[in-house]
């Protein structure tokens, strides 16, 4: 009979907790929990990861440990046998590519490209090689921490896209659960409130428009001019007495407005 219980696993603090017969529960400082078995083979000690608590219950981890010990006693490589069982489950990197291929038809090209680029940059270094059924809230929290306050908008998009990959994996049967929810942000500071972009002083707009018109008419410049000239402005009733609204034909002419 093992030393651990389901309740003890749930409430375990950071550190290493032995269940007996070489099976250990590992809890990281961030709270991520995983199983490890220590096996002696050919006079050498081998520590072999079994997966996360989200993927393996206590009873399942015990059974997996029994199976791997038998393989070791029979002269087989326990790591190769462990990986043979997991081969049908993709890594996060592999699942991302499969999710992207399945979902991109519903995205514009820019968003489809950003989906891959953001995960390659911010998720692959820490979880790219993890099997999708071993990824927990702590893993996602750790990869978000460096950008959570420095790049809050990027962090929100990365979190959403990681969730899309894990939910896709759940739909394929590669994960027992969907992506973690609110527990991801436990331990992360409050993100700064969003701010509006600084507006150009109105008096500088005519010169700016004139400068745009003096340059080659690229699609970007034309789009910017369109936004400037056609953006909604207050009607006459919203302006102070004695001040009239400015027509688009007057912008960029340099003529003073009252």
Topology:
Elements: H1 6-11, E1 15-20, E2 23-27, E3 33-41, E4 44-52, H2 58-73, H3 78-86, H4 92-103, H5 109-122, H6 124-127, H7 137-144, H8 152-171, H9 205-213, H10 219-230
Antiparallel strand pairs: 1-2, 2-3, 3-4
Helix pairs in contact: 2-3, 4-5, 4-8, 5-8
Overall description:
By secondary structure, the protein is α+β, with helices and mostly antiparallel strands. It has three domains: about 5-85, Double Stranded RNA Binding Domain; about 90-185, Tyrosine recombinase, N-terminal domain (DNA polymerase, domain 1, Orthogonal Bundle); about 195-258, no CATH class. It has ten helices and four strands; from the N terminus they run αββββααααααααα. It has helices at about 5-10, 60-75, 80-85, 90-105, 110-120, 125, 135-145, 150-170, 205-215, 220-230; strands at about 15-20, 25, 35-40, 45-50. β2 and β3 (about 35-40) form a beta hairpin. The longest helix is centred in the middle third of the chain and has 20 residues, at about 150-170. The radius of gyration is 28 Å and the shape is elongated.
């Amino acid at each position: 009979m093992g030393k651990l219980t389901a309740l003890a696993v749930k409430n375990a603090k950071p550190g290493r907790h032995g269940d007996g017969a070489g099976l250990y529960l590992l809890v990281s400082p961030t709270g991520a929990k995983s199983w490890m078995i220590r096996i002696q083979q050919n006079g050498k000690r081998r520590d072999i990861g079994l997966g996360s608590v989200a993927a393996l219950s206590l009873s399942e981890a015990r059974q997996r440990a029994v199976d791997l010990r038998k393989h070791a006693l029979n002269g087989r490589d326990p790591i190769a046998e462990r990986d043979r069982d997991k081969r049908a489950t993709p890594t996060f990197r592999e699942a991302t590519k499969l999710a992207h291929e399945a979902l991109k038809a519903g995205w514009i090209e820019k968003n489809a490209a950003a989906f891959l680029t953001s995960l390659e940059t911010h998720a692959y270094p820490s979880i790219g090689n993890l099997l999708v059924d071993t990824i927990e809230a702590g893993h996602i929290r750790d990869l978000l921490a460096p950008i959570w306050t420095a790049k809050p908008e990027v962090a929100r998009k990365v979190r959403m896209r990681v969730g899309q990959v894990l939910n896709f994996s759940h739909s394929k049967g590669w994960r027992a659960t969907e992506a973690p929810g609110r527990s991801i942000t436990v331990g992360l500071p409050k993100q700064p409130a969003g701010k509006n972009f600084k507006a150009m002083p109105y008096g500088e707009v005519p010169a700016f428009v004139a400068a745009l018109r003096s340059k080659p008419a690229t699609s970007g410049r034309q789009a910017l001019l369109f936004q400037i000239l056609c953006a909604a402005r207050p009607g006459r009733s919203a302006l102070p007495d004695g001040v009239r609204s400015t027509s688009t034909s007057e912008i960029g002419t340099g003529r003073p407005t009252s």
